[in-house]
Amino acid sequence: MALTLPAHSDPLAARLHESGLLRELAHGLGGPFHYLLPHRFDANLAAFRAALAEAGVEGRVYYAKKANKAGVFTERCAALGAGVDVASLGELRDALGHGVRGEDLVVTGPAKTTELLRVAAQQGALIAVDALDELDRVLTLCQARRPRVLLRVHPRSQPGSRFGLGGEDLSEAIHGCAEAGDEVRMEGFSFHLSGYTPQPRTDLAGDLVDLCLKARARGLQADRISIGGGFAVDYVPAGPWQIFLDGQSPGDYHAGKTFTKNDFYPYHSPVAGAHALAAVLAGRPSGQGEHLAARLRQAGVMLLLEPGRALLDRAGSSVFTVQGVKDRDGYSIVTVDGTSLSLSEQWFNSEYLPDPQLLPARPRPFAPEPHRACIGGASCLDSDLLTWRKIAFPVRPHEGDLLVYPNTAGYQMDSNESPFHELSLPPKVVIDYPDDDTRPRWRLDR
Length: 446
Fold this sequence. Notes:
The protein is α/β, with parallel strands linked by helices.
């Protein structure tokens, strides 16, 4: 029996797919494309803000821009007063160009370039300092504009992490900020933590609250902490996910490809998005004392967070046209008009697992048995497969059919895209829904 992993039902996406607009776009654009749903971004942002409000915590949401290069999401941040997390001079310039104020930017990433630090300070952005030499450059280069900094703390629970200041380096950085006096605004601390479990974030956030109190005793502002991102997205229901993990084998993949459970993103997460933030705030640091929300309130510490994928949940999908179908023993190889470079998970020894939806060019009756097919890209690389798994389609795919990969806005659709073979990069199409419930409208992302 073929394993299936259908994405959560999405009435809004179904309405778009049934409108006929995707077929017109595929014809007019002449290749694969991504569609974006900015109102979903708005709703996700509102949910994170509501979680902060319900916990009684003063907080600020920064969109992690690296999760998607589309301009429309940065524009929504500017319109809604949200911040943006940038990690390069290009991202900083792009955010400013889409209307985000410099003071609403937080600059993260390791070993920032001197020019990035200079422009960030000039624009009043908050800089997450990752090393002592970086702090020295901030203090030396940015005296004309009193720089705003967070000191990024190395997570003790992840000793192999390359991010953050630990031990004597952290003490030296705090001392350096105190000695600098009015030349710097040391606003608090931050961390970068891998994984999606809420409790480790609660624990480390509790440590950062204590650091703020100690830093204030040195005369520093230290009134905010950033817990970064790492808020999971729930792509598929629990039942199919567990069945898949328990049942998958090399026979489910083209060429007997093998994956382990640890190779996959956790496509089902019982605590995801804004609910994960609520769990972080409701947890007790190190399992002791009051919950984190109360600790933040009592200490007068603001909570900053930098979600990327979670703000993009259901905010976009990727559309490909079937170019041809080749039959093998018991399954087919479908080739589409794009490449696996447009599904970034394929390039990390993993697989983007939510089932793509087949939209036939012409109505065809369902076959008595599902038709199994993997999905190959249009390049001449044997490894160019968008989906190694033999997907169970209700009908045999035909040339001209559309394949829609659901919920790809978060990190999938543009992290690794390249015009390989001189194939054009898939454009991004912004979908707007009029208030009068008429047919959706579209425009190209800027």
